[in-house]
Design goal:
The structure holds two protein chains of two kinds. Chain A is an all-beta fold. Chain A is 0% helix and 50% strand. Chain A contains no helices and eleven strands. In chain A, strands 2, 4, 5, 6, 9, 10 and 11 form a seven-stranded mixed sheet that branches. Chain A is globular and about 40 Å long. Chain B is mostly beta strands. Chain B is 0% helix and 55% strand. In chain B, the strands form two sheets. In chain B, strands 2, 4, 5, 9, 10 and 11 form a six-stranded mixed sheet that branches. In chain B, strand 6 and strand 7 form a beta hairpin. Chain B is globular and about 40 Å long. The chains are: A mainly beta, B mainly beta.
Chain lengths: 113, 110
């Protein structure tokens, strides 16, 4: 059982470049989300989705886009990378019942130079 | 905006010692969760508590939820090197939206 799979694991971007972080889950979960974790800090919610075709903004959405065309996939797009977006990005999924288990991917380490 | 504060930020102890870490919220928790995160990995759920005053035990870990549902503690008995990691508290307020504290980074030395 793969769970939540993120690619790439590591990426270096130049300022102004765009890229997409991929996230896929095989648990048929309706709810998916993206978080970023800066050094020594907890995770902050970027965007989330409650089902295919539905997305919404979290705490720190600026500079990021998402889409949810299928239940399985929830890609995160950086439109024009900035050094402030250097971070570790985590994708998560759950079946959506409050208090239930949220499953995280292993993270994508992004450096913007 | 809900703020979660965790203390201490860092803790370094010897194997066999006991420790307690704390999580305080600026508002009432919907559903409090504790996670542990190891280097290079995503957070892994340890426990969920919902009811004020609730106490849950997971082997050597004891989780307490304050009566007013605004604070929580995690106590580890006889810590082991395998307990090393980042401990995060979070409010799970809509099944998918987590608000995290800044974490307590624990190192247990052999």
């Amino acid at each position: 059982n793969a769970g939540v799979t993120q690619t790439p694991k590591f990426q270096v971007l130049k300022t102004g470049q765009s890229m997409t972080l991929q996230c896929a889950q095989d648990m048929n979960h309706e709810y998916m989300s993206w978080y970023r974790q800066d050094p020594g800090m907890g995770l902050r919610l970027i965007h989330y989705s409650v089902g295919a075709g539905i997305t919404d903004q979290g705490e720190v959405p600026n500079g990021y886009n998402v889409s949810r065309s299928t239940t399985e996939d929830f890609p995160l797009r950086l439109l024009s990378a900035a050094p402030s977006q250097t971070s570790v990005y985590f994708c998560a999924s759950t079946d959506g019942i409050s208090g239930n288990t949220i499953y995280f991917g292993e993270g994508s380490w992004l450096t913007v130079v | 905006t809900q703020l979660l504060e965790q203390s201490p930020q860092f803790l370094s102890i010897q194997e066999g010692e006991n420790l307690t870490v704390y999580c305080n919220s600026s508002s009432v928790f919907s559903s409090l969760q504790w996670y542990r995160q190891e280097p290079g990995e995503g957070p892994v759920l340890l426990v969920t508590v919902v009811t004020g005053g609730e106490v849950k035990k997971l082997k050597r870990l004891t989780f307490q939820f304050g009566d007013a549902r605004k604070d929580s503690s995690l106590h580890i008995t006889a810590a082991q090197p395998g307990d090393t990691g980042l401990y995060l508290c979070a409010d799970n307020n809509a099944g998918n939206m987590l608000t995290f504290g800044g974490g307590t980074r624990l190192m247990v030395k052999p």
